[in-house]
Amino acid sequence: MRFIFVAAGWEGTAHDSKVLENALVEPTSQFPFPPHDKYYVVNAGFRNTKGFLAPYKGLHYHLKDYRRSEREPQNAKELFNCRHSSLHNVIEQTFGTWKNRFRILKQGMNHYDINTQVIIACAVLHNYLREYQSTDEIFMVYEQENIVADDIDQQMAQSNNVGSSSRSHDREMQVQHEKIVRTMSENYIKD
What we know:
Blueprint: H1 16-25, E1 40-41, E2 52-53, H2 63-69, H3 76-101, H4 112-132, H5 137-142, H6 154-159, H7 167-190
Parallel strand pairs: 1-2
Helix pairs in contact: 3-7
Family: Belongs to the HARBI1 family.
Pfam families: DDE_Tnp_4
Domain DDE Tnp4: 2-127
């Protein structure tokens, strides 16, 4: 539950895909690309491309869908989506923790120059507390398994796509995606 990159200064209405695309193509952003065979979990508004792994569209995804009905994943792709959702939930919990601790982030700030500095300072403090306060009450509350983060914005899921990748990177990540699904499915069946 740590921040590894912060793109402060965007309006709150900016789509995640636009912010990410800018970070990927802007050399001064120094975006930390994942190592080979590693990837960032992204929501359904993004496509699979090198370093970014999205869920399958059109299948059950949200943890609450599985918990509410006590429904088990029915196939390898649903199993993948269930586990992907679990990882994505950690991301949402991290933001929940952050906003709960630093309430100024929930309120509007009037001065742009200070806004970006406050956001970065809060992220640094969050990471520091995460590293050195292992028994922090706010972290403990958000780490409970039964807390399910808010739904992913469906509008974003329909309209976002990171456009700065090549087709070969997309195919490469799709192969990686399928490999992960097969491995998960095989391990799930064995258990």
